[in-house]
């Protein structure tokens, strides 16, 4: 995994290569950076996703390239670490700018094949997350959405089952979602990778 660059709202500056892209999005402090570190592990030794002590700090799109094959010669896909939203201590105008930036990316990024929306397993379905799902559904564009419930290690098995059911009902998700995930235990890691592979392989078959 190699870092490509950080990008602001000028979409003309975004990487334009026709490489399938997977985006990670969630409220500030939902555990996105921890999830990315868990997913990439030692394969990302040269790329460290920083777990910030200040939620809402990332206000750019950070894009990474995943390569494979002999000597890493083949670019398999790209990963977009999107800005967190919903952090109360950000000024309202800053929050609106970030949310507009996110909607712009979701609406106009043709390379996007899978959106991974992270929600906190300890919380009920939140309006801000529902707005993201509604926006994606209303656009009817060509990317899949995977809802992942993070921090399930902080709940007992019974608490996790009840909370996941409430989130599922709150968002109107299918039975298999949200996918439970823990950056501490690695639960859900294999399943997330399966969704990523399927989304990228579907894109290659279409080409």
From TrEMBL:
Q: Which InterPro entries match?
A: G_ENGB_dom, GTP-bd, GTP-bd_ribosome_bio_YsxC, P-loop_NTPase
Highest taxon of the lineage = Eukaryota
The UniProt keywords, alphabetically, are: Cell cycle, Cell division, GTP-binding, Hydrolase, Magnesium, Metal-binding, Nucleotide-binding, Septation
Q: Which GO terms describe its biological process?
A: cell division
The GO terms this record gives for MF are: GTP binding; hydrolase activity; metal ion binding
Could you tell me which residue ranges the EngB-type G domain spans? 18-202
| Keyword Lipid metabolism set for record | no
Q: Which family does the record assign?
A: Belongs to the TRAFAC class TrmE-Era-EngA-EngB-Septin-like GTPase superfamily. EngB GTPase family.
Report the PANTHER family cross-referenced here: ENGB-TYPE G DOMAIN-CONTAINING PROTEIN (PTHR11649:SF13), MSS1/TRME-RELATED GTP-BINDING PROTEIN (PTHR11649)
By its UniProt entry, which NCBIfam families does this protein fall under?
A: GTPase_YsxC
Q: What is this protein called?
A: P-loop containing nucleoside triphosphate hydrolase protein
Species of origin reads Tribonema minus
């Amino acid at each position: 995994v190699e870092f490509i660059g950080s990008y602001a709202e000028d979409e003309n500056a975004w990487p334009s290569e026709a490489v399938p892209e997977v985006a990670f999005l969630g409220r500030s402090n939902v555990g996105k950076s921890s999830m990315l570190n868990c997913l990439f592990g030692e394969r990302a030794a040269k790329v460290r996703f920083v777990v910030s002590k200040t939620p809402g700090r990332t206000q750019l799109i950070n894009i990474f390239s995943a390569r494979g094959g002999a000597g890493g010669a083949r670019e398999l896909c790209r990963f977009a670490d999107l800005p967190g939203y919903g952090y109360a201590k950000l000024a309202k105008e800053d929050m609106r700018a970030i949310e507009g930036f996110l909607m712009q990316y979701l609406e106009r990024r043709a390379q996007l094949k899978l959106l991974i929306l992270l929600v906190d397993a300890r919380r009920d379905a939140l309006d801000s997350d529902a707005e993201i799902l509604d926006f994606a559904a209303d656009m009817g564009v060509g990317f899949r959405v995977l809802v992942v419930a993070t921090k399930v290690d902080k709940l007992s098995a019974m608490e996790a089952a009840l909370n996941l059911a409430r989130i599922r009902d709150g968002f109107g998700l299918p039975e298999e979602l949200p996918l439970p995930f823990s950056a501490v235990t690695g639960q859900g890691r294999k399943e997330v990778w399966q969704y990523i592979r399927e989304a990228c392989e579907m894109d290659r078959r279409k080409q």
